[in-house]
Every structure is written in C-alpha cells, then in structure tokens.
Write a structure and sequence with these properties.
alpha+beta, Beta-lactamase, 2 domains, seven-stranded mixed beta sheet, four-stranded antiparallel beta sheet, 12 helices, 15 strands
Length: 383
Amino acid sequence: MKKIIFIFLGILVSAMFLAYLFAPRYIQKALIYQTADIDDYKIFDNDTVKAGNYQPWKVSSKYNTHKFSDKAIKNFIDYKSVAFVVIQHDSLLQEDYWNGYSNQSLSNSFSMAKSIVGLLIGIAIDEGKIKNVDQAVVDFLPEFNTPELKGITIKNLLTMSAGFDVSEAYSSLFNITTEAYYGENLYKLSTGLKVKDKPGTMFNYVSLESQLLSFIIEKACGMSISKYASEKLWKPIGAKYDALWSLDKKGGNEKAFCCFNSNAPDFARIGQLVLNHGKWNDLQVVSDTFLTQALQVDDFLKDESNENVTYYGYQWWILNYKDTKIPYCRGLLGQYIFVIPSKDAVVVRLGEKRSDKNRQHATEDVFLWLDAAWEIIGESNHH
C-alpha cells in the first residue's frame, strides 16, 4: 500500500512539475510569487520617474503632537499599515510609520497609479496633445480601427465605461488581471480586448482601460509615460525622491494600471495638487477645468447592480463622508490618497491589507483612516 501511495505521489509531483514547465510565463511567475506585494518593484524591471528640485513640505506647529487612541493603533496594526501621513494647510501635520518603513520607503501604489494616469491625460489635453476627452481612441491606437472599437473615446476609458468584456478577479491564476500584472506584453493584451456593452453606458472596472490611456499619452506626447510623468508632474510638484514605475519587461511598457512606487509624503503631493485645483505654488500643473470634470461623477452610467454610478470620476473614486465630498485614489492592499477640501487636508495611508467588506462602494477600512484623520485634524484645530 505504501508503495502505491509513493508511486501516486511521484506521478502527481511529476504532473505538477510538467504543468508548471509548460504553463505561460506569467502563470509561472504568479505561482512563484503567490500574491501581489507592496515591495514588488524588487521583482520587476522599472523605469525611473525622476524628481527635480525638491520643495520641502512646511511643517505644522502641531506636527506629530497627536497621540492615537488604543483603538486607532489596533486598527493600524491589524491592517498592517506601513505609513500614515496627514497634510493640512500645505503643512505636514502628522506622519507615522510601522514595520521598518520610513518617509523614504517605496511602496507599490497598485491602482492609485490609475489616478495619476488620469491627471496626465488632463495635462496632455491642456497642452493640446490630445484634443479633448471625446477624442476617439483610434486616433492614437490603430488597433481600434474596427466596427466594435472605433466608437470608444478617451472619456469612456477614463470613466471605465468602454464596454469591454472583462471581469477582474485578483485571486484567479487565469484572469486577465493576473496576466497584466505578471505578463510581458501589455500592449498586445490591452489592444486585444473584446467589447460586450455599448461604450458609455455601463461602468465596469477594467485595469487595462487605464493601461490604454497610458499608450494614448505616449503616442500623443512622443515619450514614455515615466518621462512624461517626470517632466509634467513629479518635477513640478517638487517630489523629494525619484519614483519607480514597474515595467512588463526590461525596456518594455510601464504597468500603468498599477505599480507606481513612491513614499507617503511624495504621494501626498498628488493629493495636494488636486486640493489646490491643479496648482502647485504658482504653477498650474493641470487645469482646474479638467480637474472639475475629472472629479464629477458620471451618474448616467449604470453599474452591475443597475445603480447609477455616483462614486467614480475620471480614474478617481468619490466618497461622501461626514457630509463632505472626498475624491480619493485607492490601491489593492489599502493604498489611499484622500483629498478633503472641507478640511484643507490630504491624507495618505499605505499598508499591506485592507478590509474585505464594502460600504458606499469603498472598502470599510477607508472609514477607519478617515476617522483617524478627523481626530488629528479636529485636535489640531482646537489647539
């Protein structure tokens, strides 16, 4: 009997080894690395988004005077937080780090990168490289010159309403999202999508729509999205450190739907730019006109529950919290940049975990970080 079991196990192991050997390369990578991680820039090739002249944050007179409640500390630890930064009135009010991370540690943005891509589209429109959001994708990507695809506009991509036949599943080995993350040909993958809905009618969150936006930027502006981001965004907002944008392969394309790697204080600059209506000091980096459009919800779109979409703009999420409208970026493992106009504040939370429960089309941990920020901001305003 033992002999039979050993033979069976031997056959099983051999079969698994052969399956691995002949599996597509992206599946082999997914099997090796198992789960996406905030340090994945170490396993990918990267392009550098260069910083320019560093413009330090002003520091609030109340800097780091807040002491978190035991409950707040437990939340930060339970959700494996690595950074929490609050900016108010253009000044650094609070910063906390855990688990060996610091104000210069890189973290994968995951889908916060989509919001950055959205801003870069706005900048390209301001520069006249793209006519407007209603311009057809086919003007930039010849693969869209088919009856099904040629009606798709940049706005459809910005609002996740291109109508592609894609269902995202982050836990499946064979899902297109896994192939996008670990695969080596993002251009072929994203220009090969099929359509199932009429563009501009249904909201369906598809990461490769953000990827397509990055290819449009590159075609329109004649440079890689990393270089464009450096020249038009990262340098103008005075980032302290170079960022890394992970690539699908050496010399390949940026994973624009994810994988912009930076630190919490520099991520906060993205929020501050939006809070300041697209201005950084005296420089208009992206027009207020574009941002106003970008942060409005396209509630003529329907989601899979047949509800009006009241929570998504142009690659930015929108949340109502304590009667205030908060645009925010969000990433897979609980990466957030919250823009809070009513408090003249920006909050960044980075970590390795988020809640698996939803409220208001957001994961529930969002409200923990906003509660913590409100506590800090409230205390600072009462001093």
